[in-house]
Amino acid sequence: MSQSGLWLKKVDSDSLDSNADKSIWRKKSCKILLYRLYLISMGHFFIDFYGNVLPGLMPAIAKNMGLSMTLSGLLFAMLSFTSSWLQPVFGYLGGKFNGSAVPAISVIISAVFMAMVGAANNYIFLLIVVTLAGIGSSLYHPLGSVLITNLTPKNQGFIMALYITAGTVGMTMAPISAALLKNAYGLRGILLLGLPGITVGIIMLIYQKSLKGSYVSRTAINSKTEPFQSKFKYLILMVIVVGFRTWTLSTFTMYTGMLFVSKGYSETAGSGILSLLLFFQSIGGIAGGFVSDSIGIKRTLIYSSIVSIILLIGFFGLSGYVSLICLLLGGALIQSAFPGSVVLAQSLYPQNPSMATGLMQGFTFGMGGIGGLFTGILSDALGGNLYLAMMSTVVFLGISLTASLMVPNPEEKKISGKSEIGVNDFTKGC
């Protein structure tokens, strides 16, 4: 057996008699948890990185190809379709077949096809490679989220927040990285962006058997006979709630760079502001994981919606640094409820959590793509007034807030067990 195989070998805590042995087992278990968390989160980083390369390049692509807002929005809509709407299908298949190599392969798919954007010399080819790049995201997200929640039963909101934040950091770095690389080498330089993702995908292939956790939700064990229909209405409700929040975030992700360029900023500055917005979203995701573990996902959804609506109104109504601060804080609050929402969706359908994740993430991200296309069409209808078109997002946040009032508020269940290692354990020095 290889050294890595010996290191990852499962340890039975019940067979350890002395306190010293238990301490050794605990440290080794924590190392295994952190190792798996790192690999899965690194894959998520690159999946979301490649999913957000396009926004940083759109000002240059639209200028070079002479694209209207509608054609620009169509690119995002097709990327959204393959990266989002297909997630329930792949989630269902993943729950049935559970291929351990799929997460690694999906990272490679996203890296290869998104890098080919740099070789696109016409709109049709660009549309094809962007559409194919989205398949990697659709494959990864349902399985990756389930792999994360299977790591440990404790503090799952925080664990999910770390995983999601890794993706958000990737989103943060993508626009500015793509813009800087384009400025240095031209659009052909984007071909180089595929190399890191391909490398990480190969590493994940080598260690694919190490990614699965040993924890299995007791809710899943005790709920095998519970009909899916009894919880389906709540899943749909969560899709509506989170979907319109994603509608808003996606609109700003797609058009923030173009909005600030239209105000006279440089393309690099516009991409930098977008990266800053995505960075604040990552902070909101981590904070939201803590908050949802503490006060529950329903309260997190309601409170963050109210404050984010006020902040976005401030962004559109004010100017200067105050307006920018309102945008950044609003983005953080909208993102804050997403980690807990994914965990709640999985608890609503524990028989196949990857399908529940696919429904949740796929449909909500899909709504985000529709939101981007809607904003582009509305902007063209308003004579190219992108600023006014983006103001419509406040209305959809209001719809999300209203639906949040009907979200179920499940009781927290404490899970005990000698072999369960949670966030509180390894954050205390294990």
Keywords, please?
430 residues, mainly alpha, Growth Hormone, Chain: A
CATH 4th-level superfamily = MFS general substrate transporter like domains
Task: Assess the beta-strand content as a share of residues.
Answer: under 5%
The appropriate CATH architecture is Up-down Bundle
Tell me the distance between the termini. Answer: 26 Å
* Largest sheet, strands/sense/barrel: none
Number of domains: 1
How many strand elements? 0
CATH C-level: Mainly Alpha
Shape: globular
Measured as a percent range, the helix fraction is: over 70%
Radius of gyration: 21 Å
- Order of secondary-structure elements: HHHHHHHHHHHHHHHHHHH
Q: Briefly note the structural class of the backbone.
A: mainly alpha
Report the CATH topology name.
Growth Hormone, Chain: A
* Poorly predicted ranges: 1-16, 214-225, 411-427
Average of the residue pLDDT scores: 80
Number of helices: 19
What does this structure look like?
The protein has 430 residues and is mostly helical. The protein has one domain (22-411): Up-down Bundle (Growth Hormone, Chain: A), CATH 1.20.1250. The protein is 77% helix and 0% strand. It contains 19 helices and no strands. It has helices spanning 3-7, 19-51, 53-65, 69-85, 87-97, 102-115, 123-149, 156-185, 194-206, 218-222, 229-262, 267-295, 297-317, 320-336, 338-348, 353-381, 386-390, 393-404, 423-426. The radius of gyration is 21 Å and the shape is globular. Residues 1-16, 214-225 and 411-427 have low confidence and may be disordered.
